[in-house]
Amino acid sequence: MAHFFGRWLGYGLGSALGRALFGDGRDERSPPAAVRRGTEADFRADEVRFAEDQKRLEEQEKQGR
């Protein structure tokens, strides 16, 4: 068990020290990786597609499907 804690402390401390000295490799001004980057045209095309899907779903609901 002591071996586990020794490794955990060593790796954790080493990792924290490395991040403190060298940074974590990410630019602090950059958005998180989960943020989708796209152009205005991409977003407009998505809006059109979503509107078409909404119309289709409303028509199916009216028909009783």
Short structural description:
This protein is mostly helical and 65 residues long. Helices cover 69% and strands 0% of the residues.
Task: Describe the overall structure.
With 65 residues, this protein is mainly alpha-helical. 69% of the residues lie in helices and 0% in strands. It contains 2 helices and no strands. The longest helix is centred in the C-terminal third of the chain and has 24 residues, at 40-63. The mean pLDDT is 77.
Q: What brief labels describe this structure?
A:
mainly alpha, 65 residues
The averaged pLDDT comes out at 77
As residue ranges, the low-confidence spans are none
Oligomer: single chain
Our count of helices gives: 2
Beta-strand share of residues: under 5%
Instruction: Compute the separation of the termini in Å.
Output: 61 Å
Shape: elongated
**Helix fraction?**
55-70%
Which structural category fits the helices and strands?
Answer: mainly alpha
Radius of gyration: 25 Å
**Beta strands, count:** 0
Largest sheet descriptor: none
Written as H for each helix and E for each strand, in order along the chain, the element string is: HH
